Each structure stands twice: as C-alpha cells, then as structure tokens.
C-alpha cells in the first residue's frame, strides 16, 4: 500500500481518537453504520440497509427493530411510492449518531482556535473541502 494512504489513515484515526466524544449510550458499531446509511442516503428501507451493511434482510430487520425500540429511527412512507416504508432518524437518533461518528465540537474548537493560526485553520478547511469534493468521484465508481 502507498505510504501516503497508510499515513492518512494513521493520522485520521489518531485525530478521531483524540477528538471523539465520550460515548454515553451503549450502541453497536453495526447500529451506528445503519444510522449513517439512513442519514446519508435518500429514502432508505430495510433492503437498502441489508445491502449497505452486507447482511441478510432478516438480520437487517432485527437491527432496525432494536433501533425503533430505542427510538433512534422511525418509519414513514415514501413520497414516490406509498407502498414503500422509509426509515428516518429521530432527533434522538441524530444526536446519538453525531456523538458516535463526529468530532467533539468543544475539543475541536479548543484545537482550532487556541492552538492554531487562522492560516493553519484555512489550510485544514481547504484540505477537507478538497477531499469532500473528490470523494464522490471514488464513491460512485
């Protein structure tokens, strides 16, 4: 593997480890992945969840059942096809997902505004913006 790829992965995991939220809820990694799919994709049902996390329809359905019980997701009907059930995040589900997949904003604020110059902050923003723009080229292949 290319050295740059290894280095980016190492840096990213180091950054995430240091700047992550302290988790308050007990939730599996698989459940977080499901919440991410629901948040990031458009009109997701059980079939799309099963495909995204590479499990059977029944297994995906069991995961969703637990997320419904915890009130992290709710079911609605598709605007395009009333027969199709769509999964959506509740406000609580969005908060849980944020805490388990985002950087702690207080820690990030401290890092960026107490330890970096405006030029350094701009460099970081530009690098993340560039990666964000280009990630769609890789993802859609």
Q: Can you describe what's shown?
A:
The chain is mostly helical and 141 residues long. It has 2 domains: 1-20 and 103-141, no CATH class; 22-102, Winged helix-like DNA-binding domain superfamily/Winged helix DNA-binding domain (Arc Repressor Mutant, subunit A), CATH 1.10.10. It is 66% helix and 7% strand. A two-stranded antiparallel sheet has the order 1-2. It is found in: Cytoplasm. Belongs to the SarZ family. Pfam families: Staph_reg_Sar_Rot. This is HTH-type transcriptional regulator SarZ.
CATH top level assignment of the largest domain: Mainly Alpha
Considering the protein shown, what is the CATH homologous superfamily of the largest domain?
Answer: Winged helix-like DNA-binding domain superfamily/Winged helix DNA-binding domain
- The CATH architecture term of the largest domain is Orthogonal Bundle
Helix content: 55-70%
- Please work out how many helical segments DSSP would assign: 7
The main pleated sheet reads as: 2 strands, antiparallel
Radius of gyration: 18 Å
Alpha-beta classification = mainly alpha
Task: Please tell me what the overall shape is.
Answer: globular
- Low-pLDDT parts are none
| Count of individual domains | 2
DSSP E strands, number: 2
Helix and strand run: HHHHEEHHH
Strand content: 5-15%
Q: What is the spatial order of strands in the main beta sheet?
A: 1-2
End-to-end gap? 20 Å
Average of per-residue pLDDT values: 93
* CATH fold call of the largest domain: Arc Repressor Mutant, subunit A
Protein name: HTH-type transcriptional regulator SarZ
Domain HTH marR-type: 1-133
Organism: Peribacillus muralis
Pfam families: Staph_reg_Sar_Rot
């Amino acid at each position: 593997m290319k050295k740059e790829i290894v280095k980016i992965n190492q840096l990213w995991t180091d950054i995430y480890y240091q700047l992550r939220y302290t988790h308050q809820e007990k939730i599996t990694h698989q459940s977080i992945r499901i919440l991410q799919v629901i948040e990031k994709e458009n009109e997701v049902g059980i079939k799309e969840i099963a495909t995204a996390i590479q499990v059977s329809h029944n297994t995906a359905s069991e995961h969703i059942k637990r997320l419904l019980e915890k009130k992290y997701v709710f079911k609605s009907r598709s605007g395009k096809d009333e027969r199709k059930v769509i999964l959506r995040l509740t406000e609580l589900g969005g908060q849980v997902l944020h805490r388990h997949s985002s950087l702690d904003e207080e820690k990030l604020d401290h890092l960026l505004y107490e330890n970096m110059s405006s030029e350094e902050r701009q460099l970081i923003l530009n690098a993340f913006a560039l990666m964000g723009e280009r990630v769609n080229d890789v993802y859609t292949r």
